[in-house]
Amino acid sequence: MLDINFIRENPQKVKDACKNKNVQVSVVLVLDLDKEKRGLMTEMETLKAEQNKISRGGAENKEIFVQAKEIKGKIKEIEPKLEKVDAELKSLLLQLPNVPFDDVPVGKDDSGNIVLRKVGRPASQLFNKPKDYMELGTALDLIDTERAGKVAGSRFGYIKRQLPLLEFALIKLVMDTVTKEKFIPVIPPVMLKDEMARGTGYFEAGDRDEAYYLPDDNMYLVGTSEQSLVSMHAGEVLNEKDLPLRYAGFSTCFRREAGSYGKDTKGILRVHQFDKLEMVIFSKPEDSKAEHKLLLSIEEKLMKALKLPYQVINICTGDLGRPAAAKYDIEAWLPSENKYRETHSTSNCTEFQARRLNIRYKDKDNKTKFVHTLNGTAFAIGRILIMIMENYQQKDGSIKVPKVLQKYCGFKIISLR
Fold it and tell me: Is 121 one of the annotated active-site residues of the chain?
């Protein structure tokens, strides 16, 4: 949510943000409703002041009694108008996107994203015809989507044998890496109250269709632990000395993948249930850009540790998402498709989420300010397992284990022998 004072002072900047993020919200209407609301509030305050003045003088005089009754009637007329205008204004404010930083590239969609760098040699250069992960997973009895379909329907999979051990190894690698940067490990709830689910600012962008909703409980299953980690401090005033406050959360996540039928529907690349390690930071406004660089550096450090080829993408305005002011993606090389596929993202949401969830801190001058929130993927486990399987496959159909994971999982190769 944007500060209404910022919108009043920078209407063109907000209009540009809507245009560049492809969001259809009338900033003019927002300002008109804001003006109307302020006018009604001023009128209400004036009437209440007169009412208080009369009540202090007593109501013995018939003329005063009539006057008091008139004022009370006017207040009753204004109250529903004010409530209506306030509700309309809040609805529009929640739909407004965060304003991108000035250095974010302008583009209408992902075609406007910019590749900042490529790291590592694509493994497809080592094979004429690399197998895809499902061929490998089926041959080695690592992935079973057929039985999962029987039990739960499409877009689920049984992960078996050595793959779960690799998952646990990836989790340990992440925790060993991020705790050195003072991240606090967390296993958060995977269900959210309605107001918390909306607080991170994705539902207005259509992510409500992605969420699994439990109507009897009015709760949602998390699509990422960012939602429950950011919401953890909702309504709190944090201590400045504790900032930046860094968390690394592990959770199972749930997404409907609405509208993606026919796209990656086979296998485990795009599924309804997956495990993920997510980083979340609460920082002072002046530190958030540095914290964003830290998140990206950790993501790259993890990819380099696994020795997976990847590229870093600077996301343009049209692909940025509603809450983010800046965002970077990492895409890993997928040999079977001969292209890069997204594995990580990291966003600086400035005070956009903090305003919605009322997360603040007191500075050294005892002034209360909103924190900035940032998030970044450590590992989306399923996708990283896929990248390891394809990039570390051998000509005999076995899969080497990245050296950095061998000490955690206890084996060097995955094979049927």
Answer: no
